[in-house]
Amino acid sequence: MTTPIHVLGFSGSLRKASYNAALLRAAAELLPEKMSLEIFDLSPIPLYNNDIEVAGVPEAVQNFKARIKAAEALLIVTPEYNYSIPGVLKNAIDWASRPPRESPLSGKPLAMMGASGGASGTMRAQMHLRQVCVFTNMLPLNKPEVYVTKAAEKFDAEGRLTDEATRQRIRELLTALRDWTRKLRGEANEF
Ligand SMILES: Cc1cc2nc3c(=O)[nH]c(=O)nc-3n(C[C@H](O)[C@H](O)[C@H](O)COP(=O)(O)O)c2cc1C
């Protein structure tokens, strides 16, 4: 008998009509059995400043860290900015990683995906995110890789993911994250 897996998901784009935020909302519709997804908005996280940290970790950051701690796995949805991840996402990870001995990121299973308007589908940003996983000791799933290319063709005007092949790919990613999390827990997979 396996227990459900609670996932915390966040998007590296803050804009209202973000394709990446829409991709994260689509994931919430495509969850396999025994998995739940909580979406966290990174907007309230201030810019990292060690002076602020020393004076007292801001409430928004404390809340973010608590939600990461409460989750068994993470789902990060990232745009690609200048061949890397956006500062918004890196900043949030930087806050969460502090202090390293108490980082809730350490040992956390992680799946990633991303959408871009062009043909790369955030491939280069995701490779950078994998590099960030090394020192933070997050445990990213290697496969499947989900690169959503030409995003404008895959969402409708309301931001709903309409491309069936992409929806299927997300189902596969979430199922693989569930199995990866169970494997790290030392549980055999039922499926
Ligand atoms: C500062 C900046 C840099 C960007 N750099 C890239 C890039 O390197 N590669 C790419 O495919 N798209 C790039 N784009 C385009 C984004 O992929 C596109 O704006 C995308 O829709 C952003 O994600 P969102 O819809 O979730 O906000 C860049 C956009 C911005 C604002």
Can you tell me the overall shape? globular
**Largest sheet at a glance?**
6 strands, parallel
Determine the mean pLDDT. Answer: 96
Instruction: Report low-confidence residues grouped into runs of 5 or more.
Output: none
Level of helix content? 25-40%
Bound molecules: flavin mononucleotide
H-E order: EHEHHEHEHEEH
End-to-end gap: 12 Å
The quaternary state of the protein chains shown equals: single chain
Q: What is the total tally of β strands?
A: 6
In short:
The chain has 191 residues and is of the alpha/beta class.
What does this structure look like?
- With 191 residues, the protein is α/β, with parallel strands linked by helices.
- It is 39% helix and 15% strand.
- It has 6 helices and 6 strands.
- Strands 1, 2, 3, 4, 5 and 6 form a 6-stranded parallel β-sheet that branches.
- Helix 4 links the parallel strand 3 (73-77) and strand 4 (109-115).
- The chain is globular and about 50 Å long.
- The N and C termini lie close together (12 Å).
- Flavin mononucleotide binds at residues 13, 15, 18-20, 79-83, 116-118, 120.
- Flavin mononucleotide is lined by residues 13, 15, 18-20, 79-83, 116-118, 120.
Ordered list of secondary-structure elements with their pairings:
Blueprint: E1 5-11, H1 19-29, E2 35-40, H2 50-55, H3 59-70, E3 73-77, H4 87-96, E4 109-115, H5 123-136, E5 139-140, E6 147-148, H6 164-185
Parallel strand pairs: 1-2, 1-3, 3-4, 4-5, 4-6
Bound molecules: flavin mononucleotide (FMN).
